[in-house]
Amino acid sequence: MELRVTADNTPRVIEQHKSLFVVDKPPGMPVHPTGQGADVSLTAWIQHSFHVDVSPIHRIDRATSGLVLLSSNSNERAFWGRLFSTGAVHKEYLAVVHGRPPGQGTITVPLYDRRRRKTLEAITHYETEACFYDTSIIRCSPSTGRKHQIRKHLSLVGHPILGDSRYARPNITSNPNGMHISNVANMVHPNGKARMWLHAHTLATEDALFTTGNPHEFEMLHRLLSERDNTLEI
Questions:
Q1: Which of 45, 71, 78, 82 is 20 to 30 A distant from 208 in Cα terms?
Q2: pLDDT tens digits, one per residue of 163-182
Q3: What is the tens place of the pLDDT at every residue in 47-100?
Q4: Would you give the DSSP letter of residue 33?
Q5: What is the CATH number of the domain that holds 217?
Q6: In the chain, alpha helices (H)
Q7: DSSP readout, 113-158?
């Protein structure tokens, strides 16, 4: 199979410990094969690049970039799976959102689980890192793991993630100089490959810490927004 991976959407292996792979997944790449088109999945890329079959220990959305843990060892997957299911893994995300949320807060809106057919507790903590005229950069830490939790929670409180075509229904406002946030984001992706601005930044346990560092795209967007606006103090 020919893998259609280009220089700007190649996964980055952060660490490899025997059978464990810690990978920074680019936005738009599915973790598993989808059977739709010829887009390569993360598991297929690892198989092709390292000649080993792996399965994900956890998952992030196709549109989300950032950390994914995978392993070729079922016992290791079970070990990490227990850590995730018991809340022993601290997860931190970076997000660019519409509007200017308060400096920090906790969202506790319960979310409906279609598979279980009931509403479940959902908790997302956030802290604002930088605030601009029509958008903000925040850090999110979900205490629960509901499907699309961060995306749904931020949309429900009126601050949807930039580029989220499913949950974003922002009130469009104009910047005094006429440069809307979408125009600024397009400057980061001049080839027209828009992304959803959500990135899995950190995974931490009592014994391990994995982080991608701040993605280049987020740093570039921060710089462009700073040039457009005077950054407000939080």
A1: 45
A2: 998 997 655 555 555 567 77
A3: 999 999 999 999 999 999 999 999 999 999 999 999 999 999 999 999 999 999
A4: -
A5: 3.30.2350.10
A6: 42-50, 74-85, 149-156, 181-188, 216-228
A7: ETTTTEEE---EEEEEEEE-SSEEEEEEEESS--TTHHHHHHHHTT
Could you say which of 88, 115, 139 is where a domain stops? 88
> Last residue of a domain, which of 49, 67, 88?
88
Distances (CA, A) of 113 to 118, 119, 139: 6, 6, 24
What pLDDT was estimated at residue 144? 95
For residue 129, tell me if it sits in a domain: yes
pTM, full prediction: 0.89
Q: Is 224 helix (H, G, I), strand (E, B) or coil?
A: helix
- 74 and 113 co-located in one domain: no
Q: Taking a C-beta distance cutoff of 8 angstroms, is the pair 57, 43 a contact?
A: no
